[in-house]
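Hi V.,

Quick status before I head out on leave. The structure for the redesign project is tokenized and pasted below; the design run finished overnight.
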């Protein structure tokens, strides 16, 4: 008797020109070696252990106000103190810094100076009516 062969898929998926093959349709995704499966199981166990530990701390009735997460601390440090590998000074970023950093200061300086000069001119002409006249 002939051995039954595995059914061949009727339609072979071909990825679009500008996209890659989704991992669910990649045959290598399901033909993993025992070593890869063992590493995946270890990662899953580690993640489950960390999740359980966090939930135990979260639901502790005598917990401190903040639960320290070392991974979050490392991520925050890397995000805030290590910006230079991810930032490049270009004319656009320099102009943006000047516009949003120095621009508002110059705007308010000009506005206050203009108002002060106008008030001084009215005082010298004797046309200035003082608001909040408390003395006389």
């Amino acid at each position: 008797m002939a051995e039954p062969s595995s059914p061949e898929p009727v339609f072979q998926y071909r990825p679009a020109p500008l996209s890659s093959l989704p991992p669910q349709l990649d045959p290598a995704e399901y033909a993993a070696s025992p070593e890869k499966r063992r590493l995946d199981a270890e990662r899953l166990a580690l993640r489950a252990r960390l999740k359980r530990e966090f939930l135990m701390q979260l639901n502790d009735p005598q917990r401190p106000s903040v639960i320290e997460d070392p991974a979050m601390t490392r991520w925050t440090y890397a995000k805030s103190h290590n910006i230079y590998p991810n930032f490049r000074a270009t004319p656009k970023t320099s102009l943006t810094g000047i516009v949003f950093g120095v621009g508002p200061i110059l705007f308010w300086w000009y506005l206050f100076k203009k108002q002060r000069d106008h008030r001084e001119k009215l005082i010298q002409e004797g046309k200035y009516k003082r608001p909040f006249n408390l003395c006389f």
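Above is the designed sequence. The CA atoms of residues 58 and 65 lie 10 Å apart.

G. will cover questions while I'm gone.

Best,
W.
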